[in-house]
């Protein structure tokens, strides 16, 4: 009840702020400078991208942070479809679909992230939709439509962005509504019967208001087939929409933006492909890696997600601007997860994820000739729950190891960050955030015969529940940031920074109370012993960074080079294993803070204009490149047996090398302009888990893309052709493995020379793959 009152109070405060800032606006008639807000365009007249990495508008050259920015124009010309499409041209970054879904995001930057999407585990990368933090990874693979730009901030962003941004942040910024009526249409068609349609409409209403709507229908046949169920595998069937109302006072001092969005994904469950012959039925491996024999189809996959946000801005004076960001979001994902990818009921998992969040942020920004910055307050109240049956092939028919978790989060923080310019060349930035986290968790595990009622069954419970736990934990942390910048000239920036990131702790939502050690050897597992076993502590990253951004040769060559060194402590290492509960095989989670690591690396982004005006005014040829190197090593990793196994542990989803090169040209042709580009990207050996796996680890690979776009009618119309993964490279992005192995990940063979399963009977080594070759055309019209 207390939490509900606090949520209501904060929402009413946000609404009251919006009303108080909007009402007096009409009474003011004196002209004044426009307040700081998201820019109408994301590029300056000189072509420099404007970003808000420090919560104020700055060009990339002036931001002492490692940032990669993608303008709407660049995203359109490269045929980007969703958020995962930008990972190959962003150094030391992984953005991918989490195993069996189209819409759950697994994000890693500089070795920090979180692969497991169940409640209780928080992502190490913050995803922001128009400055609203998305608390859960479900429905976070954002489709690209009606977008202004996307920013990827690398390194801890704990001061200005706060919650769970210990590795970095990704900002998805939608378009502001234009000043005149506008309509745009985009249609795409291509391989695998890809058929996409996007419509956007907007118009002013009087002199104070603008309204806009945008909708997307995105479909595609499967890359493969479920040969058992006779349905597509890796298909897409999605609806998405967004509506916006904007208000701006006549003097431009007050503004209000209301946005609502909704997405429904009815794609088939994405099932993996087996990598080994099944151990029980000797079913062979399929030749097409996108095919599957999965038998589980209950519940039908369905993801629904949406939210509302209200951003109110008021310029109190020429120096002070106040801003309120109020938001509510909710999503629900039904999904069947077939671990063994076979018709047999052998580790089949009907699952549901439910998430809800309410957030409120207030910012007071100050600007002057020498001092710029802000102070603020942030609140998040969230609840996340999951239920999943684990149907196991045991001596007991229809055996179900059921697990449910419910996590309630309440967090408050105060923060500030200011930059003082000692001279036009020398600046110092200082900031900090103090965060209070409270986690309340309910964890329930029991064994049943048959599906639980959550998935349409009427089961019989087997004995008493093995875990029925309620626990509360509180965490708090101050995360500072300091940055010293020096500009020897207008075209160069040198900086050195220190920053910290903090990710809250919690309780393992799949943990089993029966696995807790009997510390005092009294024969009874007490509540405190179970509490201590299920609890894991917050993670902390302390990062040092130096960088150099510049442009030379009349901006023919621009570059951003940085090096970083991070200490990563209390690393949360979640996992799941086969276990024995009450003498019967079951499924348990194991999460520890047993690791400490050192991460260091370099990143380079550059763009060279090789030729200008060679085929008429405005023609050019350019070469853009990115390079990332990361050396991530565990200094300590205490395994379940109490032994330090750091020498045989690796960082997941963190290739040592990432690189890309893009050659592009713009040529005026008749009444329009041709843009052609081709990109070659490379990622070195990638481990899927903290233990090396000969089944799932992906050796280094390269991808080749190409794009051709013709724009005419003063930019109002365009026709494009896009080719992705031209060489049709098959590469693994994730998977499941339950095969007995050594501490170093080497499979252990039995006396018959076969693998030994640790969960189920068929042996689980199942992989998911990145998209195969795709070619599609696009037509865009703006009116």
Describe this structure in words.
- Helices cover 4% and strands 55% of the residues.
- It has three helices and 40 strands.
- It is globular, with a radius of gyration of 26 Å.
- The two termini are 51 Å apart.
Write out key terms for the chains shown:
mainly beta
Which secondary structure elements does this structure contain, and how are they paired or packed?
Blueprint: H1 2-22, E1 50-51, E2 58-59, E3 66-71, H2 72-77, E4 93-97, E5 105-109, E6 112-113, E7 125-129, E8 132-133, E9 147-154, E10 168-174, E11 182-190, E12 194-205, E13 209-220, E14 224-226, E15 231-233, E16 236-248, E17 254-265, E18 273-274, E19 302-315, E20 320-338, E21 348-367, E22 371-388, E23 391-392, E24 399-421, E25 426-449, E26 460-489, E27 492-503, E28 506-507, H3 527-534, E29 535-536, E30 539-552, E31 557-581, E32 584-612, E33 620-637, E34 657-669, E35 672-683, E36 701-712, E37 717-724, E38 732-738, E39 764-769, E40 774-782
Strand content: over 45%
Described by strand count, sense and barrel closure, the largest sheet is: 22 strands, antiparallel, barrel
> Between the first and last Cα atoms, what is the distance in angstroms?
51 Å
Number of strands: 40
Given as residue ranges, the uncertain stretches (5+ residues, pLDDT < 50) are 1-13, 15-46
In short:
With 783 residues, the protein is mainly β. Helices cover 4% and strands 55% of the residues.
């Amino acid at each position: 009840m207390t939490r509900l009152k606090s949520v209501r109070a904060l929402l009413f405060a946000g609404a009251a702020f919006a009303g108080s800032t909007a009402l007096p606006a009409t009474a003011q008639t004196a002209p004044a400078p426009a307040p700081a807000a998201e820019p109408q365009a994301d590029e300056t007249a000189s072509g420099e991208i404007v970003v808000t990495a420090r919560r104020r508008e700055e060009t990339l050259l002036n931001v002492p942070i490692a940032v990669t920015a993608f303008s709407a124009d660049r995203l359109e010309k490269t045929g980007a479809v969703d958020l995962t499409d930008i990972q190959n041209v962003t150094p030391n970054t992984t953005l991918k679909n989490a195993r069996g879904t189209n819409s759950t995001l697994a994000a890693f930057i500089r070795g920090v992230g979180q692969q497991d999407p169940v409640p209780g585990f928080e992502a190490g990368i913050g995803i922001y939709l128009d400055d609203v933090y998305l608390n859960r990874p479900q429905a976070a693979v954002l489709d690209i439509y009606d977008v202004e730009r996307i920013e990827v901030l690398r390194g801890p962003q704990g001061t200005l962005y706060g919650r769970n941004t210990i590795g970095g942040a990704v900002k998805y910024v939608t378009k502001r509504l234009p000043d005149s009526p506008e309509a745009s249409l985009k249609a795409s068609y291509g391989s695998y019967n890809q058929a996409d349609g996007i419509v956007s409409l907007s118009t002013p209403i009087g002199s104070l208001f603008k309204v806009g709507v945008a909708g997307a229908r995105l479909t595609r046949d499967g890359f493969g087939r479920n040969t058992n169920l006779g349905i597509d595998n890796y298909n897409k069937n999605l609806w998405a929409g967004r509506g916006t109302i904007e208000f701006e006072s006549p003097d431009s001092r007050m503004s209000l933006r209301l946005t609502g969005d909704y997405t429904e994904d009815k794609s088939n469950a994405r099932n993996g492909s087996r990598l080994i012959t099944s151990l029980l039925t000797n079913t062979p491996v399929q030749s097409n890696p996108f095919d599957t024999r999965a038998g589980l189809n209950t519940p039908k996959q369905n993801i629904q997600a949406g939210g509302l946000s209200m951003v109110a801005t008021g310029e109190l004076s020429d120096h002070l601007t106040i801003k309120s960001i109020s938001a509510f979001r909710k999503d629900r994902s039904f999904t069947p997860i077939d671990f063994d990818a076979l018709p047999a009921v052998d580790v089949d998992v009907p699952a549901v994820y439910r998430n809800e969040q309410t957030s409120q942020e207030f910012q007071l920004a100050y600007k002057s000739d020498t001092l710029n910055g802000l102070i603020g307050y942030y609140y998040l109240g969230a609840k996340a729950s999951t239920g999943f049956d684990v149907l196991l092939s045991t001596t007991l028919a229809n055996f179900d190891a059921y697990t449910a978790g419910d996590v309630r989060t309440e967090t408050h923080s105060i923060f500030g960050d200011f930059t003082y310019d000692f001279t036009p060349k020398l600046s110092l930035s200082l900031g900090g955030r103090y965060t209070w986290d409270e986690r309340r968790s309910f964890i329930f595990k029991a064994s049943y015969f048959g599906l639980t009622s959550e998935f349409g069954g009427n089961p019989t419970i087997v004995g008493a529940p093995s875990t029925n736990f309620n626990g509360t934990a509180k965490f708090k942390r101050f995360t500072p940031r300091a940055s010293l910048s020096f500009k020897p000239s207008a075209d160069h920036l040198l900086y050195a920074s220190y920053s910290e990131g903090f990710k809250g702790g919690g309780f393992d939502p799949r943990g089993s109370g029966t696995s807790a050690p009997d510390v005092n050897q009294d024969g009874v597992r007490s509540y405190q012993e179970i509490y201590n076993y299920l609890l894991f502590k917050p993670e902390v990253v302390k990062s040092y960074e130096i960088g150099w951004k510049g442009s030379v040769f009349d901006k023919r060559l621009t570059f951003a080079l940085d090096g970083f060194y991070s200490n990563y402590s209390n690393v949360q290492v979640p996992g799941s294993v086969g276990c024995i509960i009450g003498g019967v095989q079951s499924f348990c989670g194991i999460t520890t803070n047993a690791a400490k690591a050192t991460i260091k690396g370099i990143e380079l982004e550059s763009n060279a204009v090789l030729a200008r005006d060679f085929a008429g005014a405005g023609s050019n040829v350019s070469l853009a490149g990115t390079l990332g190197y990361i050396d991530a090593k565990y200094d300590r990793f205490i395994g379940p047996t109490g032994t330090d196994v750091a020498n045989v542990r690796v960082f997941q989803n963190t290739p040592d090398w990432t690189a890309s090169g893009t050659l592009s040209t713009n040529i005026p042709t008749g009444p329009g302009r041709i843009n052609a580009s081709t990109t070659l990207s490379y990622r070195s050996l990638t481990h899927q888990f903290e233990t090396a796996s000969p089944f799932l680890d992906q050796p280094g690979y390269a991808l080749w893309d190409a794009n051709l776009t013709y724009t005419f009618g003063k930019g109002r119309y365009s026709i494009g052709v896009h080719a992705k993964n031209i060489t049709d490279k098959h590469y693994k992005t994730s998977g499941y493995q339950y095969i007995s192995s050594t501490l170093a990940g080497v499979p252990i063979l039995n006396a018959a020379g076969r693998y030994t399963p640790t969960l189920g009977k068929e042996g689980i080594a199942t992989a998911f793959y990145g998209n195969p070759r795709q070619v599609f055309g696009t037509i865009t019209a703006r009116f």
